[in-house]
Structure formats: structure tokens, C-alpha cells
Amino acid sequence: MFANNPFDALSALISTDVMQMYIIVMAILVAGGTILDMMHKKSAQYFFENAEKAKANAKRTVSTGEKISLAVSTVASEVITSSEFCNTKRRISHLLTMYGFILFVASTALMIFGNKAEILPQLWHIGAIMLCVGGYWFWFFIRVDVNSEGAKWYKLVRADIFIVSLFTTATFALIWSYLQSKGGVVGDMGSTTLFFALFIVSNTTLFASVLWSKFAHMFFKPAAAFQKKTTVADGSRENLPGDFDLASAEVQAKFPDIPEYMGKNPEYMGHGIRREPPNHY
Ligand code: HEM
């Protein structure tokens, strides 16, 4: 099954041109959905206005060299290793989902556009499996509605389109490929055709629902993470106070009433929000 390129057998029924056209339409839907999303939520406008506000509150100018190094560190940390997630399980699940999706989509496009490398079908299956593991783990156990708010796993809201269409696409793709490797043919009115149809419905939902789903976060989040680092570097800090060490003499000189309220050696109390997991339902 892992060596099976499911699009090879499919080309007996659906021409390669149609498959290639489908991929191009999906790419256009993603680009269009992202642009409409930005216009609708005015997120680009908010982003640039916020960046201007930060510039006005900046305590120092960040040089171009520093900006390049912030961009490199954003890619190396937030993008490649999903470092924004403090919860390790959520981070691992995001890494599986993200890299699974990238492998699955890239290998699909390469196979449909005629690349015959033997490794591609294997990457396609491995990507789909990674997507399923990360996606189902998130869906059943990790997401905040279920883990912290006591909602049932089957409670669906519009914001779930992204994650649900991700794992259903991968699941139906795997079942379709399995049935095909057992001799099933698309077009024979059997279960192979059914799972191929379900795969196409899920996949089209994933790429056509960008305007209503969380799909576009994969483009916005890196920009937001870079901007956040810039506000720390230029001292504007989104108008938030600095991280003070209350026991330091320098900080006590700046805020002379600290010893009066907290003693000369105040203990570090940490981030209140991290003190216990939020699951009081
Ligand atoms: C192939 C690309 C990606 C996929 C498939 C993916 C998948 C996901 C999924 C399924 C969620 C949970 C959504 C939900 O709550 O329903 C999520 C959340 C998140 N992703 Fe990604 N992601 C991708 C790329 C990225 C990138 C590049 C970044 C950051 C640089 C990022 C940062 C985040 C963050 C911070 C959250 C949590 C915040 C939130 O729930 O809105 N993701 N991602």
C-alpha cells in the first residue's frame, strides 16, 4: 500500500489534465480565500496600523540587520519548531499536523504533475498518517473545548472546519489507497469509489473554506510572531510592562515601594496563568 501511487490508477478514469486543473483551482481558492479573509477582517490594515503604533512607542530603532536576524529566528523557532506552544502535547500534535500536511500536499502535487520518484507515494502515506495522529490527538484530547471546558468531542462549531476537514481528508485518502491496493477501482460503484468521493469532498472543503476556517493562520502567524519580537526589540512591548526581577537593587531603586509591600527579597511568583491547568468544569 505504501508504494502505491493512487493517482496512477485513477488516471485510467480521470485524465491527468483534469487532476492538474483541480490542483491549480485549489491553489487559487487558497490565495483568494486568504485575500478575502484579510479584506473582511481588515487584518492587514490592523497589522500595519498596530506596527505604526508600536513604532511611535519605540524606545530604540531596530536596525535592518537586527530585523533580518529576528526574521531568521522566527522561521527557525516559531515556524519550524512550533515554539509558541507552551503545552508540549499541543506542540507535538501541531508539528505532526503541520509536517504531515506539508508532506501530503507536496507529494500529491508532485505525483499529479508527473514526478515518478519512488519515494513520493511513501511520503504521501506517511504525511497522511502524521496528519491523522496529530489531528485526532488534538480533536479528542487536547483542544481547549474538550480538555478545559468539558465540551463533548462531537460538538462541532464553524471554527472546526479546518481541523475536521484536515483529518477527514487524510483518513479518506488512506482508506481509498488501501482499498485500491486490494484491487478496488474508482468508478466500479464499490467502496473504493465511495472513499475516493469522500476524499475529494473533504479536500475541497479544506481548500474552499479558507474564508471561514483557520487555514490562513499558517500565513498570518509567522508575521504576527515576527512583529511580536520586533516590539520586544524596540522596547514598545505592546504597552506591557517589562519582566522585572523584584529582588534586584536596580528595580527596587526604580520602584522604591517594593520592599514596603513585599519585603527586601520578594520571591519570584512566576506567571499566575501557568500555576495550574485550566480545567475547572
Ligand atoms: C502546514 C501548515 C500548518 C497546519 C496544517 C497547521 C495546523 C494547525 C491546527 C490544526 C491548529 C489548531 C486549530 C484549531 O484550534 O482548530 C493550529 C493552531 C495554531 N497554529 Fe498552526 N498549522 C500550520 C502552520 C502554522 C505555522 C507556520 C504557525 C506559526 C508560525 C502556526 C501556529 C499556530 C498557532 C500559534 C496555533 C494556536 C493558535 C490558535 O489556535 O489560533 N501554524 N495549527
Overview of the structural elements:
This protein is an all-alpha fold and 281 residues long. The protein is elongated. The chain has 12 helices and no strands. Helix 4 (64-81) packs across helix 10, helix 6 crosses helix 8 and helix 8 (161-181) runs antiparallel to helix 9 (191-208). It starts with 5 loop residues before the first helix and ends in a 19-residue tail after the last helix.
Which ligands are bound? protoporphyrin IX containing FE
Mean pLDDT: 93
Tell me the β content.
under 5%
The low-confidence parts are none
Number of helices: 12
Q: Major sheet, described briefly?
A: none
Q: Provide the gyration radius in Å.
A: 24 Å
User: Percent of residues in helical segments?
Assistant: 55-70%
Distance between the termini: 44 Å
Secondary-structure content class:
mainly alpha
| Shape assignment | elongated
Total tally of structural domains: 2
Order of helices and strands: HHHHHHHHHHHH
Question: In a nutshell, what does this entry contain?
Answer:
It is built from twelve helices and no strands.
Task: Pick out its properties.
281 residues, mainly alpha, 2 domains, 65% helix, 0% strand, elongated, binds protoporphyrin IX containing FE
